[in-house]
Amino acid sequence: MRGAIQVDRDDPADVLAGTRELITEVLRCNGIGHAELISIVFTLTPDLTSCFPATAARDLGLVDVPLLCATEVPVPGALPRVVRLLAHIESDRPRSAVRHVYLRGATRLRPDLAA
């Protein structure tokens, strides 16, 4: 499952709150529980350096799920202040049934999926 959120500024409180919102919404929209999570990869745009988004996942109780944080490629003109996630899940559902979640300004990244 994929998702992204644009945060207002590079501040730990904003980045962590946005990441918690994103994780919560991705899991809720897909009816996914903790036990179905295999791992989550987070990426941040290069302008977000104040904290690790994985901290937000740990705050939500995902203490035994492997997490990884990385920086996005700094493409000129890319949408700023974006946290993305790619969650690997164990599921029998078809890929077409998975809902990808794009929140706040990140809806511009994939308007076809944000609708």
Automatic annotation (TrEMBL):
CDD domains: AroH. The keyword Isomerase applies. It comes from the Bacteria. Keywords: Amino-acid biosynthesis, Aromatic amino acid biosynthesis, Isomerase. One of its GO terms (molecular function) is chorismate mutase activity. SUPFAM superfamilies: YjgF-like. Its EC number is 5.4.99.5. It catalyses: chorismate = prephenate. PANTHER family: CHORISMATE MUTASE, CHORISMATE MUTASE AROH. This is chorismate mutase.
